[in-house]
Write a structure and sequence with these properties.
Elements: E1 12-13, E2 20-21, E3 25-27, H1 32-45, E4 49-52, E5 67-70, E6 77-81, E7 86-90, H2 98-103, E8 107-108, H3 120-126, E9 142-148, E10 154-157, H4 163-170, E11 178-185, E12 187-188, E13 190-200, H5 201-214, E14 217-222, E15 228-238, H6 248-272, H7 277-287, E16 291-296, H8 297-301, E17 309-317, H9 321-334, E18 343-348, E19 363-371, H10 377-389, E20 393-394, H11 404-410, H12 414-424, H13 433-439
Helix pairs in contact: 4-12, 5-9, 6-7, 9-10
The structure holds flavin-adenine dinucleotide.
């Protein structure tokens, strides 16, 4: 059974418990017509509407005091071309359902993020990404949209038809229109071999960029005060390559007990015994098992995340990674509190989206996490200036303090995006406090 969108008092909150709101109404349209008439009425009457996906953004990007809409009843594949790999699906489709649906066509998503609870439209709208220098985030593989605009009209947007609208919708922040359908460039299905092992910090940091160039997908986790990192190096293999998945026992022991339940216990212990955090973190690095296994790609890319946390993530130019990360490490190690959640480091290819965090430049991602029961704000505030000074771009769905004036300086196409937003939603039907901060108010609302 799916989780209700609002609690008994009518309050919506996100996965990370870092954003909440009380919508006036909650609607799960059963058809596109129902959604479009809802939009047309809101447009006429000057009301606000916000579509929510999996509520997995840490920012208040999906919060609204207007009408909260979920597309959970509008899911599934709508067209598949096994020859070109072009796959169309409804915007509400949950990412976790895509791999199974594509399997019968011998196709797969080329890359994925850490979790798959999002809706595909939510993932696209915030620039969700995984790791791998030859791969983009989801928006980089978007080839076309069918959008419901703020006035309830439906338009197609592709590189040929309404190209500006297409570009804006690729990482649209929920500000451009409701993604009814998206077409993605998928690839022949493949197996991934994961090699997880500890590496000395002094070896990983200077070699990270080279490693990202020589391996398919590289990421590492570094805990405050630890002198080793937990590395995960994934290699792509043909779809018929031998699969050696983790056994149920390994899954239970490594992923549930050590990574989820065990890590939660460690976070709780760190809260009551801050002086133990350095030792706990060294233990946590070692507890992240050394193991090699191979399985269908989505089963390797995605891991369960059952201990709630809050996250800030910035993309910085890949070439600057070593220097930026050294500064971040020094600040994290010198931070007054013990931090029991690791930093996660990934990379992505440059893409040609307008507001994607890797737009126009190869990027390294530096993500900080903090346990849900602890105050994330001062910790993130200690590190954010370093990432900002490095020309960093914050993930749209993860916590940050940047405003439109600042963001304009790191996105060359920022004003092009705004021009599209202002033309398709001048009255700010899709506006909320977050969009007002990061984009500025829609002209009809200012
Ligand atoms: C545990 C966890 C792990 C994560 N791992 C990663 C990761 O590995 N990589 C990464 O990049 N991010 C990651 N994220 C962040 C997450 O992927 C993004 O915040 C993503 O937007 C969440 O998708 P969602 O469906 O939950 O969207 P929501 O948070 O519900 O909404 C996000 C935005 O999308 C808009 N939206 C939703 N549906 C539509 C639609 N149909 N049309 C138009 N706009 C729409 C909303 O209005 C809102 O503006 C993680 C988050 C969590 C909580």
């Amino acid at each position: 059974m799916s989780t209700p969108l609002v609690d008994r008092r009518g309050r919506w909150s996100n996965w990370g418990r870092s954003a909440s709101s009380t919508p006036q109404a909650v609607v799960l349209p059963a058809s596109e017509e129902e959604l479009c008439s809802l939009l047309a009425a809101a447009h006429r009457e000057g009301r606000r509407v916000k579509v929510v996906g999996g509520s997995h953004s840490f920012t208040d990007i999906a919060a609204t005091d207007g009408t909260l809409v979920s597309l959970d009843r509008l899911q599934g594949l709508t067209a598949v071309d096994p020859v070109t790999g072009l796959v169309s699906m409804r915007g509400g489709t949950r990412v976790w359902s895509i791999a199974d649906a594509l399997e019968r066509y011998g196709l797969a998503l080329p890359n994925m993020g850490d979790v798959d609870r999002q809706s595909i439209a939510g993932a696209l709208s915030t620039g969700t990404h995984g790791t791998g220098l030859a791969f983009t985030g989801y928006s980089g593989i978007a080839r076309g949209f069918r959008l419901a605009l703020a006035d309830g009209s439906i338009v197609t947007a592709t590189p040929q038809e309404n190209p500006e609208l297409f570009q804006a919708a690729r990482v649209g922040l929920g500000a451009i229109g409701v993604i009814l359908e998206v077409t993605l460039a998928c690839v022949p299905s493949f197996v991934v071999r994961a090699d997880e092992h500890p590496v000395d910090l002094s070896e990983m940091v200077p070699n990270f960029v080279d490693l990202c160039r020589s391996e398919d997908h590289v990421e590492f986790y570094w805990f405050q005060h630890a002198n080793q990192v937990a590395a995960k190096v994934n290699t792509r293999l043909p779809g018929d390559a031998e699969r050696t998945p983790l056994t149920r026992r390994q899954l239970l022991l490594d992923d549930e007990l050590l990574s989820n339940g065990g890590h939660r216990a460690l976070c709780e212990l760190g809260r009551v015994l801050p002086s133990a955090v350095p030792s706990l973190n060294r233990f946590a690095t070692k507890a992240m098992a050394s193991r090699v296994y191979a399985d269908r790609s989505d089963r390797i890319f995605v891991s369960p995340r059952r201990t709630r946390f809050r996250e800030m993530e910035y993309a910085v130019p890949l070439a600057d990674f070593e220097a930026v990360f050294a500064e971040v490490m020094a600040t994290v190690n010198g931070y007054k509190d013990g931090i029991t959640f690791p930093l996660e480091i990934r990379s992505a290819a440059a893409d040609d989206t307008w507001l994607g965090t890797a737009s126009g430049r190869e990027s390294a991602y530096i993500a900080l996490h903090r346990f849900v029961k602890e105050d994330y704000a001062p910790y993130f505030a200690a590190v954010e200036p370093i990432l900002k000074a490095a020309g960093g771009r914050p993930h749209w769905g993860k916590l940050h303090t940047r405003t439109a004036e600042e963001l304009r300086t790191v996105y060359p196409r920022f004003d092009d995006f705004l021009a599209v937003r202002d033309s398709v939603d001048p009255r700010g039907v899709f506006a909320n406090a977050y969009l007002d901060r990061v984009l500025g108010a829609a002209p009809g609302r200012a």
